């Protein structure tokens, strides 16, 4: 039987290109598309037979038979793009039908996923990540999440160390046509935690972990690729994403207890892939920072450190590693 891998992501995703090139090198048939292509540039015809969905996906330049799909690489797809001229109620109804119909058929395919989007959505909750990490035996910074100024201030005073603020829903913030990146921010004045404006939404505060380095661990199946990120930049030492130009990279081994804990986290969350961030304190202890990204970036580390991450993902998608 022919084998096909679907790559579902936006048109500008250069990291996904690495996996496409690896699959192409292996002679694997690949169909890449964006969920935004449905329904206007992507057609679905599907029939449910005895325990299997069959049919076709037909795009502008490629097509695939559903029964040939052995793997799906689900990265950063856009939203369904519906025809112009629809009323708002028509849009809402059509979007729901597209999500449950088109998305439902894809979910029903008996194949490997990196990652299953339902599992990804659940795993993006940082409180779930943290409690799962603790249950798996990983160290975490002391953490407070809430919208109660008095309790936030009391918590910060009680732990008696520096704390930082981190966004819960991602670092990109767009307002009035301008895009801003929200990095981890030190709280230099604890009294600011008593500000009534904290009540407007949930806030995420964490104990500051003094660092000798941070580590990004990219997990693909049973493989773990760990890179220590060193920087002398003041901004980079608080949040390495704030100053990529200052980075120095070093491939490191993952301690056995961290490897076991991280493996348990992925098993509990139902993930095949993640990018997890750790801080190593001056005593050499690894702290999971509550950042386990089911769709985290890896391309730049694979490039700088010559890591075979694309090959590992291709192995899973082909079914070589389940």
TrEMBL record:
GO terms for cellular component: cytoplasm. Pfam families: ATPgraspMvdD. GO terms for molecular function: ribosomal S6-glutamic acid ligase activity. Residues 4-118 form the MvdD-like pre-ATP grasp domain. GO terms for biological process: SOS response. PANTHER family: BETA-CITRYLGLUTAMATE SYNTHASE B-RELATED, RIBOSOMAL PROTEIN S6 MODIFICATION PROTEIN. This is ATP-grasp ribosomal peptide maturase. The lineage of its organism: Bacteria, Bacillati, Actinomycetota, Actinomycetes, Streptosporangiales. The gene is tgmB.
